[in-house]
Amino acid sequence: MDSIMSRYLSLRHFEMLVSVARCSSMAEAARSLLITPSALTHRLREAERRLGLQLYEKQGRNLRPTQAGRILTQTAERILEDIEQSERVAIS
Question: Closest by alpha carbon to 17, among 84, 82, 63, 85?
């Protein structure tokens, strides 16, 4: 039986979603996260498995976000922005 935490995404997953959305390729997204493209693919599959959702569809050599992927990426952007803002406030 999975632990409760293994059902949820981590901040690394959220960073991955935002990076994939902002970059022009998986290779570029992987470089921005300082991981290999295969590690990025593994992380994406892990997120999909945890959620039980498909977040991206292959379209030729590119990935296209599903509706769930777009919604989750928008949420991830807000969460990461909130964390950055909280850190700035705490430091000042």
Answer: 63
- Tokens 């569809």 locate to 57
Query: What domains can you pick out in the chain, each with its CATH number?
Result: 4-91 (1.10.10.10)
Distance CA 73, CA 23 (A): 13
Q: Alpha helix locations (H) across 6-66?
A: 11-22, 26-33, 37-51
pLDDT for 34-61, tens place per residue? 999 999 999 999 999 999 999 999 887 7
CA separation for the pair 10, 45 (Å, rounded): 13
pTM of the complete model beyond 0.90? no
Tell me the C-alpha distance between 80 and 62, whole Å: 25
The neighbouring-strand residues paired with 56 are 65
19, two tokens: 């990076």
The amino acid at 6 = S
